[in-house]
Design brief:
The protein has six helices and two strands, in the order ααβααβαα. Helix 2 packs antiparallel against helix 5.
Length: about 150
């Protein structure tokens, strides 16, 4: 819910793109064309970020074997439906500034902006996306070769 400081809530029309963004749990394994995937990732690249750090790393799987590996990193409840998706990806936040090495307190917020840009571009191309937090974190980093620091 969004409220103004005085407690009022405003209701207005929004662009259909936002209303049509949906998180299904039913997918077909019809492949995502490489040009469509590239457009989604490019949209994410253009997301705003503090100091233009772009502190995100998208690692994705489109081939059956790599999708099985990605699915194995999910909790059982997500594994059952996500294994059928034609594309699985993990989004990582670089928690330290690439410039200074100092902690980047905005990295997760910025990654959220990149995710939404990815999801909205996917919707514009006719796809639905489903973000999820149900994965086994301590297995993801070593399995995908990403530094957990």
């Amino acid at each position: 819910m969004i409220k103004e400081l005085d407690g009022r809530v405003a209701t207005v029309e929004v662009e259909r793109l936002f209303l049509e963004r949906w998180s299904p749990r039913s997918f077909t394994d019809e492949p995502v064309p490489p040009a469509h995937l590239a457009a989604m990732l490019e949209a994410a690249r253009w997301a705003p970020s503090a100091m233009n750090e772009q502190p995100w790393l998208f690692i994705y799987a489109t081939e059956p074997e790599s999708r099985r590996t990605f699915a194995s990193l999910l909790v059982e409840g997500n594994r059952s439906w996500a294994a059928r998706a034609p594309l699985l990806l993990f989004l990582f936040a670089r928690r330290r500034s690439a410039r200074s090495g100092e902690p980047n307190g905005w990295a997760e917020f910025d990654c959220g902006a990149a995710w939404l840009s990815f999801a909205l571009q996917a919707r514009l191309l006719g796809y639905h996306t489903h973000a999820m937090a149900g994965f086994v974190e301590e297995q993801v980093y070593p399995a995908l070769g990403v530094d957990a620091g």
